[in-house]
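Module 6 notes. Inverse folding takes a fixed backbone as the condition and produces residue identities as the prediction. Think of it as a translation problem where the source language is geometry and the target language is the twenty amino acids. Below is one complete input and output pair. Work through it position by position during the lab.
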């Protein structure tokens, strides 16, 4: 069934566990995430990013409708989340499109502007009954830009600022910059576990972005240290594209798109199950 994302994250945070949130681009991604979560018997979050909407010719509804329908029929609880929203126009489409939550991303702005824009977004979202996540510090590697120097001052989330930001904006969860970066195709990120432990004193659940680049052991540790939502996108594309590349190399005569999309979908579903399995190792020790 389709459930509010906030419920899944709140329940995970209370149990010192984390819910996995996967970015979906195509119908095959949606099917693979749900199949993987059903096999694992775990709740999951389907995320549609602003970039995915841009890929779909700027239209949210085709993918959103497919995600809502798949979630409603799923055998496990599924949250639907609009991810990395910068456009106010897109933000305002979220409730009617079936989303229970949004991530409003104003992290590119100065601290004061991020705070003001996020507070306005949070006020609007709460009036609509939406759960809202925001970002402080800057998690690198968005929009094809190189990952920021993980040690650059200002790139990491400052704990004192984070306390002010959460109080000043009223957001329900905070995406923290602790050493991960988006779009990594190898698991070589090094998380700042001491910083994460300090941030875990905040009054809201913490979200890890760029989780595709984080080694399994560090993911397990991060959940124990306060991460309650783990965002994964690139790892699904690595699985899908690798499987399709291998299939087509071995079968140059193949033309039916179902053959290779099916192989790609299976590979994604296995990766979803694998990541949920890694996170479950943090669950109750
Ligand atoms: O918001 C989405 C995530 O941060 C995904 O990052 O594609 O590097 O796993 P990733
Ligand atoms: Zn992200």
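Target side of the pair, the amino acids:
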């Amino acid at each position: 069934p389709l459930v509010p994302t906030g419920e899944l994250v709140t329940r995970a945070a209370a149990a010192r566990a984390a819910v996995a949130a996967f970015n979906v681009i195509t119908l095959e991604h949606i099917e693979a995430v749900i199949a993987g979560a059903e096999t694992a018997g775990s709740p999951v979050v389907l995320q549609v990013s602003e970039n995915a909407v841009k890929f779909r010719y700027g239209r949210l509804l085709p993918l959103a409708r497919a995600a809502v329908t798949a979630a409603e029929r799923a055998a496990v609880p599924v949250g639907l989340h609009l991810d990395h929203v910068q456009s106010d126009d897109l933000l305002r489409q979220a409730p009617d499109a079936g989303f229970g939550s949004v991530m409003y991303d104003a992290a590119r702005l100065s601290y004061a502007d991020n705070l003001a824009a996020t507070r306005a977004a949070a006020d609007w979202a709460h009036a609509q009954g939406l759960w809202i996540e925001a970002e402080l510090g800057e998690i690198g590697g968005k929009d094809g830009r190189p990952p920021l120097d993980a040690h650059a001052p200002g790139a990491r989330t400052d704990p004192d600022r984070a306390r002010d930001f959460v109080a000043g904006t009223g957001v329900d969860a905070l995406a923290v910059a602790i050493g991960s970066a988006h779009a990594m195709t190898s698991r070589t990120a090094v998380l700042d576990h001491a910083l994460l432990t300090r941030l875990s004193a905040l009054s809201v659940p913490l979200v890890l972005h760029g989780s595709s680049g984080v080694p399994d052991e560090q993911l397990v540790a991060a959940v124990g240290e306060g991460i309650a939502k783990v965002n994964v996108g690139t790892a699904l594309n690595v699985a899908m594209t690798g499987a399709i590349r291998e299939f087509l190399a071995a079968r140059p005569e193949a033309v039916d798109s179902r053959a290779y999309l099916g192989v790609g979908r299976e590979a994604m579903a296995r990766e979803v199950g694998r990541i949920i399995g890694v996170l479950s190792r943090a669950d109750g020790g």
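Reference fact for the lab report: The chain has a mean pLDDT of 96.
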